[in-house]
């Protein structure tokens, strides 16, 4: 499978498949495909796996696209202006990502729920208790809100980010929260009471415009139907 990411701030990943190669995605992200590609929808491993993905913010069913000839193309588009991150998975690393990050992948990539182990991180970390975990072998494509920054954290190295800006991280990275210090900082700093702390080793992807932040920004400018 070969791929190319196009589209600038409104990206699409176009994958080129040969006979027998399979891509899968969540419902709704497929934008185009060649005529010699067969689509089949199922839970991707049973109803429990489907329910697990639904709890993690994705669809109960997955779509599987199989090329029935060489040189076939299929494109998967983002649902929000941002970036598409291509990640090559193998047995040596797993990826943890925010809810609804999954765009598409090769068939041997496993998609599961991932639970926050720490109570504080789940309640105050801005990402909730249930995230997505990607493992197995093959390419996975994640959609990220806004621009994306990548950091390779060394053993024990820390990165502090505002809540909601964590897009994805390798499973080796420890995620926790810390309270903002100082009463004036908490009351007037505008960053809330808690920040997220990421501790290496491992790679981290940070997004610049979480969807919830975008929604909160435009709400004051929307027409008030009660007025």
What does this 3D model show about the protein?
This protein has about 230 residues and is mainly β. The chain has one domain (about 1-220): 4-Layer Sandwich (Double-stranded beta-helix), CATH 3.60.160.10. The protein is about 15% helix and about 50% strand. A six-stranded antiparallel sheet has the order 5-6-3-10-13-8, with no helix packed on it. Strands 11-12-9-16-19-14 form a six-stranded antiparallel sheet. The N and C termini lie far apart (about 55 Å). Residues about 120-130 and about 180-190 have low confidence and may be disordered.
Any key phrases for this structure?
227 residues; mainly beta; Double-stranded beta-helix; six-stranded antiparallel beta sheet; 4 helices; 19 strands; globular
Helix content: 10-25%
Whole-number mean pLDDT: 81
The CATH architecture designation is 4-Layer Sandwich
Structural class: mainly beta
> Which class in CATH terms?
Alpha Beta
Distance between the termini: 54 Å
In short:
The chain has 227 residues and is mainly beta. It has helices spanning 47-55, 119-124, 183-188, 211-218; strands at residues 2-6, 12-17, 22-26, 30-33, 37-42, 62-67, 72-77, 82-89, 95-97, 102-106, 109-115, 130-136, 138-145, 148-153, 158-161, 166-170, 174-179, 194-199, 202-207.
Task: Indicate the topology.
Elements: E1 2-6, E2 12-17, E3 22-26, E4 30-33, E5 37-42, H1 47-55, E6 62-67, E7 72-77, E8 82-89, E9 95-97, E10 102-106, E11 109-115, H2 119-124, E12 130-136, E13 138-145, E14 148-153, E15 158-161, E16 166-170, E17 174-179, H3 183-188, E18 194-199, E19 202-207, H4 211-218
Antiparallel strand pairs: 1-2, 2-7, 3-6, 3-10, 4-7, 5-6, 8-13, 9-12, 9-16, 10-13, 11-12, 14-19, 15-18, 16-19, 17-18
């Amino acid at each position: 499978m070969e791929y190319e990411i196009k589209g600038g701030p409104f990206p699409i990943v176009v994958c080129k498949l040969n006979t027998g190669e399979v891509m899968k995605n969540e419902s709704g992200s497929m934008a185009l495909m060649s005529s010699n590609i067969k689509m089949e929808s199922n839970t991707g491993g049973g109803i429990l796996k489907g329910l697990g993905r639904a709890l993690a913010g994705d669809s109960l069913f997955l779509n599987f696209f199989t090329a029935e000839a060489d040189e076939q193309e299929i494109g998967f588009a983002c649902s929000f202006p941002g970036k598409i991150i291509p990640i090559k998975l193998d047995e040596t690393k797993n990826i943890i990502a925010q809810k609804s990050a999954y765009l598409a992948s090769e068939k041997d990539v496993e998609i599961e729920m991932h639970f926050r182990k720490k109570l504080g991180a789940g309640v105050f970390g801005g990402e909730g208790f249930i995230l997505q975990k990607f493992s197995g072998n093959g390419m996975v494509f994640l959609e990220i809100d806004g621009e994306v920054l990548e950091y390779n954290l060394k053993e024990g190295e820390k990165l502090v980010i505002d809540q909601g800006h964590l897009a994805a991280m390798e499973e080796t990275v420890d995620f926790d929260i810390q309270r903002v210090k100082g009463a004036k900082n908490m009351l007037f700093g505008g960053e809330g009471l808690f920040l997220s702390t990421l501790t290496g080793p491992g790679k981290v992807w940070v997004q610049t415009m979480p969807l919830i932040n975008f929604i909160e920004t435009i709400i004051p400018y929307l027409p008030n139907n009660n007025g």
